[in-house]
Amino acid sequence: xxxxxxxxxxxxxxxxxxxxxxxxxxxxxxxxxxxxxxxxxxxxxxxxxxxxxxxxxxxxxxxxxxxxxxxxxxxxxxxxxxxxxxxxxxxxxxxxxxxxxxxxxxxxxxxxxxxxxxxxxxxxxxxxxxxxxxxxxxxxxxxxxxxxxxxx
Length: 152
Description:
Low-confidence stretches: 142-152
Largest sheet: 4 strands, antiparallel
């Protein structure tokens, strides 16, 4: 099952797995893709890229905002985070904003990329951003766990 890469059954950044019935759901947050395996055969049943929400414009409070992250839920749907401004971790940049409050709003989203709820909750700083300059490049965490990912 799997390995590093972007093809079927390959992953760049697994963040969530869920067992639902006789299926194993694996979410790759770097590729925005969910792969579903049969637990009987460990064969891929389907792999789907999770598109941006098809009905986001219906929700005025996040109209024009960016989808930041997805968390796989135990029923195969997602908790989707939306941000008005994406983080800019380049300390020398005039748009650097890691120390500023950036509202994050969370909604449920189904497998068809439709938002299915009103806002569930909102935070202004959901986690502490970590930034390190390594060999002249900025590395930053993009999830609330200590994983540094090259964003440039």
